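Bumping my old thread because nobody answered last time. Still need a sequence for this structure:
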């Protein structure tokens, strides 16, 4: 209910308390934990004679405005559920320009007061202090990144746990951890030299109870495929392959040029020939996999992302969800929903395009209309053939190699078409 013009703001004395920590480790810290913040804010409200009308607490980054409890607090403020927002410290509300702008828009429109337990909040300079807070965060990130790059240049692990098969030594350099390293060697040996499929490798690893790093986890296809793909096992590991940048929409990942990568020496677990052979086999098996032929895609292996250059993966969804009585229940689709999805965004967390996927029907219809237009214009076909004939290419060996590659592709597509027809 809206207030009358002359109503006293202090008559209600309704307050909302907001507690936030950046990560779960801080949530248990004795000094800044959520519970400690709440105790301090409750005592503050009691001293000020404020009645707590709403409570909000969450784990989230201060520079992001995509915090569920923060947004819920703003919605309640628009509905005038309280007159004052109390926080433990001003940076709990915002450490960036974007959430500060949203907060100030609501606060000024509904004449809501901001108060903090440990410092004073000046409404006139709050936005400026939030901008300074973002600059401070950016400086901290820059210094942290420089420190990590210096650590990597010294041949030590800059941060985080080393890949499966390795441990970090007392000097900070990676060392082989034999129980896991033997599992890595066995995976490459079975896949490359014995021709064992990934699914069968998972079964054998599970049967022999080979060690996994996380308790309760299991050997599955995605994990084995990630091991087969990592260059670190041939002794090549690089720091700085991507950069994380904070934007209004959250963190975005940008791939970095190769000349900016820093190589950290790792003891190789397999030789380079074995690793390269594994990548070739993965590519061949992915193209010939029956999994990719159960649902027909007209442009399979033909579409690439214009931004990152990675090929588009074929993805389909056979299940949807319906809402009944406030709950969601799975339901099978009568017809699978097909998409083409950028591999760079799937595997490398790139942010190269929006949306990440394209509906298969839309793209295939566009391409097929172009093909029909070509077929209906014989002159275009003749012109294309003549242009090919006019090309001067004296290197017979290159022509033969190209023809063999084209023939191999045709044979693969023939086999795929036969399997589709049989299905």
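Sorry it took so long. Here it is:
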């Amino acid at each position: 209910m809206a207030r009358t013009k002359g109503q006293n703001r202090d008559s209600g004395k309704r307050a909302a308390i907001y507690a936030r920590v950046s990560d779960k480790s801080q949530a248990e810290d004795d000094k800044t934990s959520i519970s400690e913040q709440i105790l301090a804010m409750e005592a503050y409200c009691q001293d000020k004679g404020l009645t707590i009308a709403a409570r909000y607490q969450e784990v989230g980054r201060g520079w992001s405005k995509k915090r569920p409890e923060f947004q819920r607090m703003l919605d309640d403020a628009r509905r005038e559920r309280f007159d004052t927002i109390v926080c433990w410290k001003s940076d709990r509300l915002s450490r960036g320009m974007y959430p500060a702008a949203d907060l100030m828009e609501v606060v000024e429109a509904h004449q809501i007061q901001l108060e903090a337990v440990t410092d004073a909040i000046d409404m006139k300079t709050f936005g400026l202090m939030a901008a300074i807070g973002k600059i401070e965060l950016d400086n901290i990130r820059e210094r942290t990144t420089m420190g990590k790059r210096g650590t990597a240049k010294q041949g030590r692990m800059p941060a985080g746990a080393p890949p499966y098969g390795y441990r970090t030594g007392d000097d900070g350099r990676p060392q082989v951890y034999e129980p896991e390293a033997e599992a890595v060697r066995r995976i490459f040996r079975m896949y490359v030299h014995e021709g064992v499929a990934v699914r069968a490798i998972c079964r054998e690893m599970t049967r022999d109870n080979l060690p996994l790093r996380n308790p309760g986890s299991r050997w599955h296809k995605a994990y084995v495929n990630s091991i087969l793909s990592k260059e670190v096992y041939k002794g090549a590991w690089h720091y700085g392959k991507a950069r994380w940048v904070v934007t209004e929409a959250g963190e975005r990942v940008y791939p970095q040029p190769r000349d900016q990568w820093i190589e950290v020496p790792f003891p190789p677990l397999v030789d380079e020939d074995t690793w390269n052979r594994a990548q070739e086999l993965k590519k061949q098996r992915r193209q010939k996999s029956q999994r990719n032929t159960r649902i027909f895609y007209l442009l399979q292996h033909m579409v690439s992302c214009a931004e990152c250059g990675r090929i588009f993966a074929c993805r389909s969804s056979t299940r949807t969800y319906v809402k009944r009585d406030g709950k969601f229940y799975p339901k099978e689709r009568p017809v699978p929903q097909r998409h083409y999805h950028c591999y760079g965004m799937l595997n490398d967390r790139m942010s190269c395009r929006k949306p990440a996927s394209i509906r298969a029907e839309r793209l295939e219809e566009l391409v097929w209309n172009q093909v029909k237009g070509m077929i209906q214009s014989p002159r275009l076909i003749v012109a294309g053939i003549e242009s090919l004939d006019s090309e001067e290419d004296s290197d017979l060996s290159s022509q033969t190699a190209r023809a063999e590659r084209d023939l191999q592709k045709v044979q693969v597509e023939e086999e795929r078409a036969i399997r589709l027809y049989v299905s």
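The two ends are 65 Å apart (CA to CA). Let me know if any region looks off to you.
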